[in-house]
Amino acid sequence: MKKMITLLAFVLLTTGCSSIANVTTPNRERLLKLSLGMGQKEALKLMGTRRMVAKPDLFETIVINNPYRSEILEDKDGKYYEILYYVTENKYDDGVIKDEDLTPLVFNSDKILLGWGTNFLKDFIDRNQIKNISQSLSSGKKKSGFGKSKKNK
Hints:
This protein has 153 residues and is α+β, with helices and mostly antiparallel strands.
């Protein structure tokens, strides 16, 4: 009986811990199908827009939206860019989604995919002199994101 309970507990724990991977793995696989110049509607259809529930352990449930979050950035010329973030990692396996677990997709104001990935976004921010970005990155005051978030107008 004791072996049965131990086996059941092991199965429940490993199933729960792997459930975030049920979100991250498909998102990483879908990134491989993206292409530059793709329209935002097409990219959203490919990457998905549904809400998923993950159970990192027996006692916690996490709701993960696809995309997980978004923000609007403005460059020095007043051009706007929309950044959609998808959960593609769970580096610390602690059930908490951090910025480093997200992959950004960058769209211009015409809703065309310019690129994706953290390195792309950082280079893009540097090249386009995104306003107030260095303050947000270095201050540590902002909980998440790479830049100043603005509401859609």
